[in-house]
Amino acid sequence: MKHTIKTLLLAVVAATSLQANAADPIVIGYQTGVDPSKVAQADGAYEKAIGEKLDWRRFNSGADVVTALASGDVQIGNLGSSPLAAATSRKLPLVAFLVAAEINAAEALVVRNGSGIDSPEQLVGKTIATPFVSTSHYSLLGALKHWKIDPSKVKIVNLNPAEINAAWKRGDIDGAFVWSPALGEIKRSGKVLTDAAEVGKWGAPTFEVWVARKDFAEKHPKVLAEFAGVTLSAFADYQANVAKWTADSEQARKIAKLIGANPADVPELLAGSTYPNAEQQVSAELLGGGTAKATARTAEFLKEQKRIPAVLPDYSPYVSADYVRKAQ
């Protein structure tokens, strides 16, 4: 009898555990960059399309998102091309399934008024902040390389966007390469020395992707397809109605509230990136081949800068156009 009761209790515990696991939300790591899909996030459009509970967690940098993905705390995450290259070079089992943005003026190097920096060569000896192993960090190193400035001659400090904003106000730093909302704030009392668009033309382009853990992607392909579909719909709405996404628009207010930005900065920050449509996503330029090649080039640069130990021979196993195709 005791054995029977014990067996029943174990069965109940197991069933309860399974029910709890079934009810666990999908955890999504997002960052504070401005893009049209933030409106869909604020509106609950992803939950409606996917039909499951979603737990949106905000992170200050791609490196933090990578750590959460590696631990299994996050199933889907938003990364820049630099942390993507760093993570996949270490063979972290991820798959990039959607290009979230091609970064142009949305990330920039701003120098503080009164810092004494009017030209690139005056960066020598100055303190410049950026989140390490981020797209902004990659762009900063790319700019210094273009200007033929040894990075060791500049005091580059690792600060996340919120810390950059605070350090800027205290006068602790002379400049920063960063994204929104910190970018919008520091531009009010500084000037742009260069941005990601210009650095991209110099040979170091940057972009953002949505990635998923490979084990999650294999078990839940429909979730990623629905996620991609909602995101692409948000991109299409923005492209069709750019003139309506003004500083006083409902869209700008929703984005600003979600990421802690000033609504007045949102239109300019949105215009600072391009958002590929479904056809562009699956093309040879992006998920159909170009994204993997760009990741390889980024990895080569990071290795050159001694940020990663080795470069993989092929990054295509870490990129897939399948989920966007299923969303079409």
Summarize the structure.
The protein is an alpha/beta fold and 328 residues long.
Query: Count the helices. How many?
Result: 16
> Averaged pLDDT, please?
93
The proportion of residues forming helix, as a percent range, comes to 40-55%
The CATH architecture of the largest domain can be named as 3-Layer(aba) Sandwich
* Total count of strands: 11
What's the CATH C level of the largest domain? Alpha Beta
Task: List the strand order in the largest sheet.
Answer: 2-1-3-10-4-11
Q: Could you tell me the radius of gyration in angstroms? A: 21 Å
Give the termini separation.
Answer: 58 Å
Return residue spans where pLDDT drops below 50 for at least 5 consecutive residues: 1-21
Silhouette? globular
Determine the structural class based on helices, strands and strand pairing: alpha/beta
- The third-level CATH topology of the largest domain is D-Maltodextrin-Binding Protein, domain 2
CATH homologous superfamily designation of the largest domain: Periplasmic binding protein-like II
Number of separate domains: 2
Q: What is the chain-wise order of helices and strands?
A: HEHHEHEHEEEHEHEHEHEHHHHEHHH
* Strand portion: 15-25%
- Main sheet attributes: strand count, strand direction, barrel closure: 6 strands, mixed
